[in-house]
Amino acid sequence: MPMNRSINRPVILGIVGDSAAGKTTLTAGIATILGSDRVVTICTDDYHRFTREERRINGISALDPRGNYTEILEQHIRLLRDGQPILKPHYNHDHGTLERPELVEPREYIILEGLLGYSTRAMRDCYDVKVFLEPEEALRIAWKVQRDCSKRGYKPDEVMKSLEKRKSASVNFIQPQRTFADMVVRFYRPEGRPDETGGQLNTRLTLRPTLPHPDLTPILDAGAHNGLRLDLSRDVDSKPVDVLEMMGDIDDRRAKAMEELLWSLIPEASHMRTNVGQFTDDNDKLKMSHPLALSQLLITYHLVKAALGHYAI
Length: 313
What we know:
The chain is an alpha/beta fold and 313 residues long. It has a single domain, classed as P-loop containing nucleotide triphosphate hydrolases (Rossmann fold), CATH 3.40.50. Helices cover 32% and strands 22% of the residues. Strands 2-5-1-6-7-8-10-9 form an eight-stranded mixed β-sheet, with helices on one face. α1 crosses α9 (290-307) and α5 (137-151) crosses α6. The chain is globular, with a radius of gyration of 19 Å.
């Protein structure tokens, strides 16, 4: 944990996004930086009310709050924030079944990732840092097809039918949660690279003023086309935001300079230094992405500052 920790409760990070948006990959990297012994990760999709077969019969999507025990999730987040253990439900994503609940003890950092983590005010009030993932839609579809076919036993046409069926639920229940995030992370393919789904993806970070983001100007020239770009912009709701972009083909030297800057801004966490930006590709091989590393480090920066009491809520 950071030295001089100022708050005596867990620091809570929320990561919300549609199915196959990259939540698990982002979460795993942040947990590695903070230290797996200091982090507990909870998938809010464990709070599904129905099995996959029951949803097929009743027609209620897993993306619909009615298909989830949102009131229990609210209670559990508050209990964890107060340092209390919970008996968490367990949804088996491979088989679509509800299984025996699990005892979860709070740790110094708690990451809640899933579909509906910001769906109620009571939930939103418990987070110290809120992140929303919105990858390019064609990219998300490619990720979902690859994951559901390789790990969950689906056929490609079944995945595509599911995506079409869930489209309205995504618009109605997932996308509106974007407005509550402090940071929006968007991975997208480089121009002319429609087959790129991994290490060469670009990233766009929308940084809202709901958090005091670090000063990145020492190594950033706003508007410069050198692999990094920081601009003042307007979000989809017309409110002013900072937009930080990193190209997937940025050279190692410049990317490392950005990483070093972020580490220098959280000297209390210097002992947490580790390899960041790692992910498993379609062939189950470990790869490196500088834009992913940037996203993980910037989120970690905010978590450490929250632990130091800078964002007391």
